[in-house]
Predict the 3D structure of the following.
Amino acid sequence: MEIPIFIVDAFTNVPFKGNPAAVCLLENELQDDLYQSIAAEMNFSATAFITRRDSMDFSSGARFGLRWFTPTCEASICGHGTQASAAVLFYLKKNVNPVLEFETMSGELYVRRDEESLIMDFPLNTPKPQDQHEIKDLLKAAVGNVPIQDVCFNPKTSNLLIRLADTCDRSALTSLKPEAEALLKNESTGKIKGVIVTMKGAPTAQPGYDIYSRYFAPWLGVHEDPVCGSAHTVLAAYWSEKLSKKKLLAYQCSSRGGELGLEIRDDGRVNIIGRTQIILQGTLKI
């Protein structure tokens, strides 16, 4: 069996930054263990698998099946894997449709082109206040002694959001070094699958980011995800309310870095906007 495979850096306009994902184009579904084996071999935070629908090819079809796997498990939603998948279809397969629809575990997701960017139409996931005392050991493992302003939780995405105090500068976020073992030890209930650490940005600087963040998900086999698009469905909901803004510019402060535009829609969804770099294409031989 030969499977076309691509490596795409998402949420960046330069190679080797942003979040890398592998993308596989499938003529037919695979056995689940083979999906997982391929994802483990790629060893990215996401390997995406696109399957055709309605007997259409990858250049003319508008609807596709899409699944994402981390090195250890299947993911229910993945932003950068979706963006990378759309990039392969639009830029390499020259897909003729203005909008692509992906059928996923999280429902229908849509991606359209806008000049050099891709705009993803995702559900908005509003977090609710979380009692800090209940998870004090996890908070300590995540941010140490850095002061915390707010803690929220979104059950749909299983993401915990920790907002650092507004008195912190960006170095407080970038210098965090939580240990995967400590995070796993202090959250073993299965309730939390990812930790978003965020802080208010510097909108008056250049390029003027409204929010900064980092994302840790050792429960999914990913210690730190360089740029997590799906985490920004939670961040967008949280910060749009706190900042009273419907349009936000976000930067994820991992070692690779990544930039996302966020637009809150009136229908309870969010547009996630970013650019991509396709850096490799080849064939997986099994």
In short: The chain has six helices and 18 strands. The longest strand covers residues 276-285.
